[in-house]
Amino acid sequence: MAFLGMTMRLERKGKIIFISLLAWLLLAAVPLPARAERIKDIAQFQGMTENQVVGYGLAVGLDGSGDTGNATMEAIANVLERMGLTVSPSDIRAKDTAAVMVTATLPPFPKAGMKIDVTVSALADAKNLQGGTLLLTPLHGPDGTIYALAQGPISIGGFVGGGGGTSVTKNHPTAGRVPQGGIIQKTLPFTLGNGRTIKLFLDDPDFSTAWGIAQRINRDFGPGCATAPDPASVEVNIPAIYAGNIVDFVSLIGGMDVATDTPASVVINERTGTVIIGQNVSISPCAIAHGNLTIEIKTRYGVSQPAPFGPKGSQTVVVPKTTVNVHEQKARLMETSGSSLGQVVSALNALGVTPRDLIAILQALKAAGALHATLKII
What's the 3-state SS for the chain? Predict the structure, then answer.
């Protein structure tokens, strides 16, 4: 009887282990849900657009690193004339002034009196805008209307130092910003929807994401409230109870969580050697061979002098000696594959290549059909 009881307990325990293992396998087989994002973080409402403005101005107070051209001198003369002082451009020698282009972006729904940041960029041959001050500059829109005024000290976020042929430079000294240096002068009209419907424009068009946004809105406000006519937009009907208060309706929609689905992509910046690999990127099993060719050229200059008491007219001759060395690394095949981001990163790291070489490898993988992602080169 004791043996029979022990057998039944072992059998029961085995069933529990089997059921637990089966449940774990079933959970592992279920795909993980897509990441949820707020609608206002992945889409913009119709009417929430930015506007760009531009102006021509002068930066003064430079330490001798300004412009030397006649156009800047004429601009200085015009500024002085508006202040009641008449000066000929030919009489001006101002190396502490530079002609600059001033650009800014007006936020959605701009109001008169709001402050914005402006960007200042040298237009002529100024070497450095460090320590400069932007004079009052009107900023125009495409229609020629003045929408903002800009003025203030310029911050280049770096410095230039040294002299006498030796100098050090940090960041880009011929472009800077004036934080909160622009003041909006005119309120732009805007329309948030047409009173009956409002549209959402996705930052990254995708069929699944657009459909998910429409379904999420319909879940809270009823079937047929939202439709997705294309992967880039979602059209929403404004309920009657929010007809006079569209701000509340937009606020509710913007705070909703939606599961997003982004396509697999690899972004490459060849100028900086930057490579960004998306989460859904995968690589089919393949073999990669990559080697480097290095050519080193050295030139040494030797001096041949005439012997003492040599023939008259003998001269010292500089004789160059050039040495060329070629080094080519032996390439070996590396098996590479991966179905998840971690596996892809591990496989590429195993190659032990530089970012520049990695760009060439990714392009070759895409050409061979082994890289399952959209390759974007910026």
Answer: CHHHHHHHHHHHHHHHHHHHHHHHHHHHHCCCCCCEEEHHHHEEECCCCCEEEEEEEEEECCCCCCCCCHHHHHHHHHHHHHCCCCCCHHHCCCCCCEEEEEEEEECCCCCCCCEEEEEEEECCCCCCCCCCEEEEEEEECCCCCEEEEEEEECECCCEEEEECCEEEEECCCCEEEEEEEEEECCCCCCCCCCCCEEEEEECCCCHHHHHHHHHHHHHHHCCCCEEEEECCEEEEECCHHHCCCHHHHHHHHHCCEEECCCCCEEEEECCCCEEEECCCCEEEEEEECCCCEEEEEEEEEEEECCCCCCCCCCCCEEEEEEEEEEEECCCCCEEEEECCHHHHHHHHHCCCCCHHHHHHHHHHHHHHCCEECEEEEC
What are the residue boundaries of the structural domains of the chain, listed by start?
51-157+168-184, 197-259, 265-292+331-377
pLDDT in tens, 189-242: 777 777 788 999 998 888 989 999 999 999 999 998 999 999 999 999 998 888
pTM of the model: 0.62
